[in-house]
Amino acid sequence: MKKRMKRILCMLLTASLAVGAFVGCGESQKETTSTAENEKKEELTSKDIIEKAAKDGKVGNWGLGNEYEVLALLAKYDLPTDFLSQDFTMDGFDDDSITLASAMTYNELGLVKNDYEGGYGYKDTVEYIDMNDEGVAMLEDNIFCSKDFAKENPETVAAFLYASFKGWEYAVENPKEAAQICYEYGSSVSKEHQEYMADEVAKLVSTDTKGEKVSDIGNMDEDAMKQTLDIAKKYVSLDDADANEKFQNLTLDDIRDTSFYEKAQASDGKFNVEKKKVSIQLKWLPDAQFMGYYVALDKGYYKEVGFEDVNIVSGGGDIAETTAVNNNTVDFGVTWETNLASADASGMNLVEIAQIFQRSGLVLVYKPENY
């Protein structure tokens, strides 16, 4: 009986070891598979991500002039230059109808990541493809005026730049305070999002397309501006044939004047302004995207250089900033290089006098689990 019992115990022990070995093997296999999957995901390049989204037909953009970098990126990888029309929420990204969605680092990306009002709360579980890293960056916010205004009011132009640069410098160094100032001037977004925006906008002002620090606010980088114009010429198509031909023949010297930037940078802050009351129209509603101007106004920097009043006009209305400047409704405007070049080719007489954003703020955001 004892021998039989011992044999049974041995059999149970053997069976137990066999099961344990099998389970252990299974767990090991699971770990190996999981590790392999993770390594595969880690090995995915931006090209892999872009190709899959493009082939699935799930690349999104708003259009309206924001699409040229996306088109250049798709063309870079020999992919069809089609994209889904994306609305001004990130709902399409949230429900996976768009798996590679356009986002500005200082706006939509913050809404995707954060869980404050209007946010989607993905935190750091999302990743993105940066247009600067991909070599297809196009420059955004600049300061411009009409060529006639610049010629007739050179001291006014230089003084406005000097004070604006001072405001931008302070805002970059003190983004939280700048965000509060924007909020008090009638921000179009929440205080929490305003603070997020200010941090991100500061990076666009102080870092170039290569990721290097920029010491001078408003610098007009030759290579970045040329890249912007070159990409625009590939993808912008104006309705009028003559305007389209003119656009293709534009050079940087046709659309920019560095002399006012240089005068402002070299100045001691003393100017004899020809016009004491001036205005600037923004490209969009009041928020930290334009914090330098609000800081300059709030801190009295415009008054220091001789202005009695500076009116900051909200954008996003019926009259575009290029039209408003061209017809003398306002003196200065904030726009993108591509918009200004298109406007000049269409018969306007505008000139860029400073480049505030030194790198592109456009990224394509995605959920790693979709790849």
TrEMBL record:
The keyword Metal-binding applies. It catalyses: N(6)-(pyridoxal phosphate)-L-lysyl-[4-amino-5-hydroxymethyl-2-methylpyrimidine phosphate synthase] + L-histidyl-[4-amino-5-hydroxymethyl-2-methylpyrimidine phosphate synthase] + 2 Fe(3+) + 4 H2O = L-lysyl-[4-amino-5-hydroxymethyl-2-methylpyrimidine phosphate synthase] + (2S)-2-amino-5-hydroxy-4-oxopentanoyl-[4-amino-5-hydroxymethyl-2-methylpyrimidine phosphate synthase] + 4-amino-2-methyl-5-(phosphooxymethyl)pyrimidine + 3-oxopropanoate + 2 Fe(2+) + 2 H(+). InterPro entries: NMT1/THI5 (IPR027939), SsuA/THI5 (IPR015168). Residues 113-178, 288-369 form the SsuA/THI5-like domain. It comes from the Bacteria. Residues 1-21 form the signal peptide. One of its GO terms (molecular function) is transferase activity. GO terms for biological process: thiamine biosynthetic process. It holds the Pfam family NMT1. PROSITE patterns: PROKAR_LIPOPROTEIN. Pathway: Cofactor biosynthesis; thiamine diphosphate biosynthesis. Gene3D superfamilies: Periplasmic binding protein-like II. Homodimer. Belongs to the NMT1/THI5 family. Responsible for the formation of the pyrimidine heterocycle in the thiamine biosynthesis pathway. Catalyzes the formation of hydroxymethylpyrimidine phosphate (HMP-P) from histidine and pyridoxal phosphate (PLP). The protein uses PLP and the active site histidine to form HMP-P, generating an inactive enzyme. The enzyme can only undergo a single turnover, which suggests it is a suicide enzyme. This is Thiamine pyrimidine synthase. It comes from Acetitomaculum ruminis DSM 5522.
